[in-house]
């Protein structure tokens, strides 16, 4: 076991920050052929799908960053397998800007929406596998963290995997419903984390 997680956190923070920045590069300033108010509004409407896909992915990456920070903040160290689990997660984080750009260009094409869902599924699965390894196959968490708390967090991480997986076949028939589902996953992870609550009670 390595003593601390500072290097792995710094590495991950940099990748997530770069991925968040790359998202905006696909939101191009419109070229105006008509400078009237109506012309400007029409040009902005053309950019709107790109901006909405940017917003969706930016918030998703923000949620990933918060969860990633919270996850590593609890640990007393890291190990080689955890570092590779984290590399796996960062790989899919790096793919998100590509899937986002494609979604912005073709927001209602079933296969494009399904592809976005597939990338998000793999990202969520990578995080879940990292949680599974750390919580049940290492001694990186303090002994004060109960098995119940670990199971709560682990089961919670599967929600994203399940919903994103469901979005793939759903997108092939109802792409708009999958887009709503993506937003719903974000909403779920804004809810209070039962793992955090149990940790607070255990220290009172």
Quickly describe the structure.
The chain is built from seven helices and no strands.
Number of strands: 0
How much is the radius of gyration in Å?
Answer: 19 Å
**Which regions contain 5 or more consecutive residues with pLDDT less than 50?**
200-204
- N/C terminus separation: 29 Å
Mean pLDDT: 91
Number of helices: 7
User: Helix amount, in percent?
Assistant: over 70%
Order of helices and strands: HHHHHHH
Class per helix and strand makeup: mainly alpha
Choose one word for the global shape: elongated
**Strand coverage percent:** under 5%
Q: Largest beta sheet, briefly?
A: none
Report on the structure:
The longest helix has 38 residues, at 37-74. The relative contact order is 0.13. The chain is mainly α and 204 residues long. It has helices at 6-23, 37-74, 80-105, 110-137, 147-173, 175-190, 194-202. Mean pLDDT is 91; it is low at 200-204.
List the helices and strands and how they pair.
Layout (H helix, E strand, L loop, with lengths): L5 H18 L13 H38 L5 H26 L4 H28 L9 H27 L1 H16 L3 H9 L2
């Amino acid at each position: 076991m390595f003593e601390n997680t500072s290097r792995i956190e710094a590495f991950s923070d940099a990748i997530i920050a770069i991925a968040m920045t790359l998202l905006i590069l696909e939101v191009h300033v419109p070229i105006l052929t008509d400078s009237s108010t109506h012309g400007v509004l029409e040009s902005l409407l053309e950019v709107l799908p790109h901006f909405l896909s940017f917003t969706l992915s930016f918030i998703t990456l923000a949620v990933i960053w918060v969860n990633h920070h919270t996850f590593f903040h609890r640990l007393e160290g890291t190990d080689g397998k955890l570092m590779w689990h984290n590399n796996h997660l960062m790989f899919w984080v790096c793919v998100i800007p590509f899937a986002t750009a494609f979604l912005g260009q073709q927001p209602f094409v079933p296969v494009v929406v399904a592809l976005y869902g597939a990338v998000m599924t793999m990202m969520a699965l990578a995080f879940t596998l990292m949680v599974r390894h750390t919580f049940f196959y290492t001694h990186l968490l303090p002994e004060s963290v109960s098995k119940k708390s670990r199971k709560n967090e682990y089961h919670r991480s599967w929600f994203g995997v399940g919903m994103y997986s469901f979005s793939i076949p759903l997108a092939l028939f109802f792409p708009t419903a999958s887009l709503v589902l993506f937003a719903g996953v974000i909403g779920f992870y804004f809810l209070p984390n039962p793992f955090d609550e149990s940790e607070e009670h255990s220290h009172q």
